[in-house]
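Friendly challenge for the regulars: who can give me the structure tokens for this chain first? No prize, just bragging rights.
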Amino acid sequence: METRVIGYGRDLRTGGRSKWSTSGPLRQAIEGLASLSIKRLRWAAVVGVAAAAGGGLLGLWFATDVLLLGEAVQEYPSQVSAIGFFGAVQLLDERLFVFLNSLGSERWDGFWLFVTSRFSSIPVSVALLYLLYRHYGLKNLLVILALVALMITVTDQLANLFKHGFERPRPCREEHLKEIIRYIAPRCGRYGYFSAHAANSMALAVFVGLVLRNTYKHLLLLLLFWASIVSFSRIYVGVHYPLDSLTGAVIGALVGFLIYKLSQRFNLSRPR
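First reply, four minutes later:
Bragging rights claimed.
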């Protein structure tokens, strides 16, 4: 007669080594709790990264700019009160831009110029095309490419609509900033709110990361990191304020998520 302990115990047939039993309420409860936690942990990681980035940005904002704004209030109280809330936000955004932009150095200029150029997205796009083709096949890949084209068109047109609607000049266009910022971009556009670079890269990161999340669990986080680097590069080269990049990233993420929900209607599945 075989001897076996239910739950935690030892199986005498294995030489006394500890072994889980094939059944038991304790094991089922622990496995159910573990699977639930792991599933939620993926989304908790994304929310955590976003919260940490937002908290860091907010802390940096208060640490560097609010103090300067307080000095401005003491020196020019009438001017600060006259600009109102949105003027104060733009003032803080401008001061934060000056701080972040001034962190650059000639040693890193070449790297950030490559990141902010269209060429930097080529190796990322090729790698994603390969992963999508490998997972979904050619037929489904064509559907996904059509959705990506629609997504990029939407983000580009939204960016143009905002730029001509708000007509906020880029920092490289402001006369009072030209002498104190590091402007290294090859060209300076007219209006900057919001950044199409940030929107496009974040939309692509969210969409492809969600489409492939069941196969490549960490791909979404890697793509979000890449999109964040692209967004910051626009500040580094001197063509966008932090609020331009942040707004573009948020809108891009929303568009990418909506296009992902649309893709689910096509019942994309891996070919057999």
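Confidence is low (pLDDT under 50) at residues 1-22, 60-81. Residues 25-75 form the longest helix (51 residues). Your move, everyone else.
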